[in-house]
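Example record for the data management plan.
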Amino acid sequence: MDTKQADCVTHILNGGGHLLELIDQVLELHKIETGNTEFVRETVNVGELAKECLQFIEARAAENRIEVRNDTEQDTALFAHTDRTRLKQIILNLLSNAVKCNRADGEIVLACRRMPADVIRVSVTDTGIGIAANLQDDLFTPFERLGHERGNIEGTGIGLTITKRLVELLGAEIGFISEENAGSEFWVDLPPGDNGENIAEFIGFKVPSEQTMSPSSKAIAPVPSGRRTVLYIEDNAANLELMQMIIREEPGLELISAVDAYSGISRALESRPDLILMDINLPDISGIDAMEKLKEHRETAAIPVIAVSAAAMPHEIERALDAGFQTYLTKPINVNEVLDAIRRALA
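Corresponding structural encoding:
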């Protein structure tokens, strides 16, 4: 294949890629508009998620000689009760837009910070071409390219429309300021969260008092040889912190943890915990698959396992119970339910 033929193939592949992107975005927009988009709300560390999103965009930005900088407040825990996957999609859309509309040797700054009234703001600022004042009212209109139809800026004109719809469905707000030839700043304001000190109240529960705790939850007796060990397999740091708060109230329990399924299985084989709490949506394999692997080992096959997940659809719960989970707890978790489930499992 000569150079000319290779160039033709490259153009065909690029064109096919753009077409697939357009189809995917049209289908995504249709799902949103028809109310078929599912949301799973959980406690999200927004600062950590922002750092993760930057890693996805850095290589692409470098190809265009664009510097990417994280200006997130590092000394403040920024939590939001939202859909992690959708928030990640929103941030990535804004970052992708900042790359496409930037210029060589430009800059992109991603920042997360606490605003007045405890609003968590995620902002993306670029030094790109900006948006003319007379075009800004059409920015979120589907398929509106804002005069770039014949330019070299890639895109379908749907990405920001999808972003705005998702932001609204999450109960958040989106805004922007832009100046032609000077750049733009987009931001998303998430509902008030918590700084981590009172995070239990933030996600919808309080550690119960003696008066509100059920009788079976008031105490969990340790085995004669010492404390009972609970292994929590969970990749979300905020959820792990919450479980630690609960377990800390129980003198008969000790919590150990793992951040993914495979390390959790290894920890279970090594420590032989009395009980395992496990998220269903883990970063390497699902909790269902992890459950199957635990049953394959003689050392862990008899350990009771409780599912703790934000996925609350009936078929998801049924599937987990069929796989062998003893109980299925949904997030945001209820302290009494957690302690009752642990008590029953260790009885």
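Summary line stored alongside the record: The chain has two domains: 12-190, 205-346.
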